[in-house]
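Question: Hello, beginner here. Any chance you could explain the protein record under this note? Any guidance would be welcome.
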Amino acid sequence: MKRTLLFAALFAISPAFASEIDPFGFDKQVFVSTKTRTDVRAELTAAQFAGELPVGEVGARFADVPSVKTRAQVVAETREAARLGLLRNREIGRLPTTFAEQQLIRQAGLRAIGVTQITK
């Protein structure tokens, strides 16, 4: 009985939300282009050739340089940064680190690959 009443109430409320799909009437606006398809494709080709188009979601180009660190180094450095409380949500970014914290992270990575003395 309660389920029936619940579904009936939801069904009765649903028409109220139907008009809110496009409350500003954007679907009724008409867009007219001033360029032909050929013009747009020519501009796209020229921009691609000139390297003016952004790459990826943010527009940053990806680095094609191979990593110089081993997987063990990266894992050890990440664990050390987590131990120091320097990791946070990826969307927010990295926390600023001090020189001493950077050295601790670097030393953890070097210990992971068996380097005991740091020359620099």
